[in-house]
Amino acid sequence: MSTPRTAIAPGTGQFTEQVQISGHIIDSLILPKVLDIITASGGNFRLERITIGQARQDPSFAVIEVSAPTAELLDEILAQISDHGAIPTAQQDCQLVTADMDGAFPEGFYSSTNQRTEIRLGGEWIEVEDQEMDCGVMVAPPAHRARCVPMTEVNSGTQWVVGHAGVRVFPTERTNERQGFEFMSSGVSTEKPKGVAIRQIAQELFQNRRSGKQSLLVGGPAIVHTGSVEHVARLIRGGYINKLFAGNALATHDIEQALFGTSLGVHLDRGDVVEAGHEHHLRAINRIRRAGGIRQAVAEGILKSGIMYECIQGNVDFLLAGSIRDDGPLPEVVTDVLEAQRLMREKSRGISFCLMIATALHSIAVGNLLPAWVKVVCVDINPSTVIKLSDRGSIQTVGLVTDVEPFLRALVQELELLDRGAT
User: Is 70 a residue whose pLDDT tops 70?
Assistant: First the structure.
């Protein structure tokens, strides 16, 4: 729902609004982005005041007069630049509308980003909890709290923010602390010095574990097909992976390898196809279903190695989300897509580092759920996976285009060096 503008600059026939942005708006290119959006959308701007920080750690501040030939266009421009932290200088509380039905936002709802956000309520700015892109912001006025909620969880009678008035976004900015991580994020390329990038990823995982923070692995079946199971098992045993998100395929082929020594019927140690090996994944699923599940199969001594085995032994929480093409599936696979999404949302809270390996759909799904301050590394042989993540708004994603096995082997080696140096 737009807020019609009536302020017309004398003698210009233009509708105007004064906005302000602050922070590291120069070196993070936030100011140029805002100005580009204004002009590209058919508006005009005038820099009324600008103060530039003298040192890298000093914030900058700018006041901009935004104008457009119609009130509607001005509203559209203000909505776009608000996602980059531009807020009107004439502050007002956010506008709330009550949901009139379950499962749908009120018309004109504020669509959230993955950036840290605050809303103005009762003259005070309060932080929006559970930050996530493509949600609405539900407000509980008596509790003076607000949080991002997906469309499917809207209940009639709840209150929601509409429009952009009274909402301010804090775009992620570059800081000295992230300089090393930023080195890897200068676009998607097959020609990056992978040794340097892998060392930096190892440092992130090492520091995350040292500080007691949580790291998430989002993995695809290529981890198994490329013979990388033992590398991931060592990461789990080393305490570098705290949670695992995957599909039926990764778990199935991991268990197939543990039981039959094959993946998709191919012997991973010799590379030859086994007679009737195409049946192995079904037999693996069947054996786990007969045991009652993966945990029961480990307890009974049926499953004695592999990624899923290490998750059970190391008490690593895992979530297997199903798809329409799944065989079986394994008993632990969540086949209701909305329930899987809800569980991913719940289990990803508190994650500070996410490593995505060789899975386009799961990577994009998880990327949509993570706030912008969670560091994300996506490793895939296909550069389009990383590009899609960035295009969808997961701007914090660092992409490394390489094969799975050499990456994981080198990552484990770097972490072992760090472990030895720490003792």
Answer: yes
**How many other CB atoms sit within 10 Å of the CB of residue 248?**
24
**pLDDT 10s digits, 176-207:** 444 455 545 545 555 567 888 899 999 999 99
What string of H, E and C letters represents the secondary structure of 342-375?
HHHHHHCCCEEEEEEECCHHHHHHHHHHCCCCCE
**Residue 3: pLDDT band by 50, 70, 90 thresholds?**
very low
Are the C-beta atoms of residues 99 and 157 closer than 8 Å to each other? yes
Q: How far apart are CA 24 and CA 120, in angstroms?
A: 22
Would you tell me the crossing angle of helices 71-82 and 30-40 to the nearest 10 degrees?
A: 160
| Cα angle 369, 375, 379; round to 5 | 90
Question: Is 326 in contact with 289 (CB distance < 8 Å)?
Answer: no
Distance, in Å, from the CA atom of 310 to the CA atom of 321, rounded to the nearest integer, reads: 19
Rounded Cα distance, 321 and 267, in Å: 27
Whether the CB-CB separation of 192 and 184 falls below 8 Å is answered with yes
Q: How far is residue 146's CA from residue 1's CA, in Å, rounded to a whole number?
A: 19
List the domains of the chain with CATH numbers. 1-90 (3.30.70.2690), 91-171 (2.40.420.10), 176-422 (3.40.50.10690)
For residues 327 and 256, the answer to whether their CB atoms sit within 8 Å is: no
CA distance 21 to 34: 9
pTM: 0.83
Please report how the helices 360-369 and 383-391 are oriented relative to each other, as an axis angle in degrees rounded to 10.
20
For the stretch 268-296, pLDDT in tens is 776 667 766 788 999 999 999 999 999 99
